[in-house]
Amino acid sequence: MSISKLFSETLKVVNVGSPSFKKDFETQGLDYVHLEWKPPASGDLKLLSLLNKIRPYSEQIEKANEEVVSKIKAAEAKLVAVKQAKDVIPNMTSHTILHSGPPIAFENMAGPMQGAIIGALMYEGLAKDEKEATLLAKSGKITFDSAHHHQAVGPMAGIISASMPVHVLYNEVHGNYSYCTINEGLGKVLRYGANSKEVLDRLKFMETTVMPVLNEAVELAKGIDIKSIITQALHMGDECHNRNKASSALFLREVAGYIVQTSFSDEMKSGTLNFIKNNEHYFLNLSMPYCKLALDSARHTPYSTVVVAMSRNGVDFGIQLAHSDKWFTAPANYVKGLMFPGFTEDDAAPDIGDSAITETCGIGGFAMGGAPAIVQFVGGVVKQAYDYSKEMHEITSGKHQVFTLPPLDFMPTALGIDILKVVETNILPIINTGMAHKKAGVGQVGAGLVNPPMACFEKALEDYAKGVK
Predict the structure, then answer these.
(1) Which end of the chain is flanked by fewer CB atoms within 10 Å, N or C?
(2) pLDDT in tens, 247-281
(3) pTM over 0.85
(4) Where does the chain hold its CATH 3.90.1710.10 domain(s)?
(5) Cβ atoms of 322 and 202 closer than 8 Å
(6) What is the pLDDT of residues 163-214, one digit of tens each?
(7) What CA–CA distance (Å, rounded) separates 330 from 162?
(8) For the chain, where do the domains classified as CATH 3.90.1700.10 start and end?
(9) In sequence order, what are the residues at sequence separation of 6 or more whose Cβ sits closer than 8 angstroms to the Cβ of residue 333?
(10) CATH of domain 73-290
(11) CATH class entry, domain 55-70+300-467
């Protein structure tokens, strides 16, 4: 086309990246096409250098990441028992307390986590009151550790002590186990740091009634298929992190008939049935260990750049990669969303809990496009939920063909967060989650959306680059 012909026709504007130019075109009423674009790694020369250093290993990385995604997708998960933590969790002792997120010392923990530990020590009979429990927690006689180091996960504070009942999940494909406490329900609960008599009495009820009845029911059922329930629930409006209405109902349907057949009294059976029926979040504590189980099956894969754990302790956010057990941490962000009446953003603690294991496995925030009702809980509009589910495919190495989203034409969920793609595109994983009050025991003050700190992925990239030669 000649220059004279070019300028004799109506010019059409393509705006690349710059939001300020975009605003100018809108002000002038010009037709334009806007192309969202940012330079790789936001133009950071250090990060670009690290990405270039790794580039010669692209073939090995791609092959390793394909292997990781394949293992995660292949993992099966059956609930095979409900037992006390000390009887099933590896390296669990009477003086061990597990918590959510990367490791942290008691004195550095967020208020909700400290409050939950104090409650756990009283629940275990190791302290008679809060003052005694606080002194014991500071004494050095209690071993604190990340639940992830013991094949376990827990929501919010994520506290697991020796006598607490835990769901035991088994992966028949890879032969590994995972563990998670039973969800307490809403209101004043240990996971938000509450430790009153009401909270401890409920924990004892779960230990003495719910645990034995459920364990026998699961034995009669020869295991409950958790992966299958997630698959169905995603087609019924759940994303299996903050919305578990369908999944909890499906689980109750699977287990109810076996509960009735157990050898326990009618009072214990009805108590267990009602406990599950009245708790719409019951299944969260089954979807989380499923995700942990599947992701752990892909650990220790050389060259992989896929994330197998994202977790937060109310102070730090941490990630782990498939090729290494190292934690890469940065200060946790604050959740942005809807506050419950009477609370403001200043009341909320930083992001906390192991429940981001769901997003790490491609559900939760990654599956919001299949659960549009979730926006009423975390804020935003339905289109955002759709857009997030689509966008996550830009930072992952694969997709989960079994987990599909009907509102998006049965699009598979994005699977296998790749640190290289996160750094290169500057797109962070999306997490939907609850907000805990910064003070122990107040409880949930809202819900919303949050991203991991980019620093976690940058540190992981730098460490990875050191390992290649």
Answers:
(1) C
(2) 999 999 999 999 999 999 999 999 999 999 999 99
(3) yes
(4) 73-290
(5) no
(6) 999 999 999 999 999 999 999 998 889 999 999 999 999 999 999 999 999 9
(7) 30
(8) 55-70+300-467
(9) 317, 350, 351, 450, 451, 452, 453
(10) 3.90.1710.10
(11) alpha beta
Place of tokens 């076996």: 258
Position of tokens 């494909």? 173
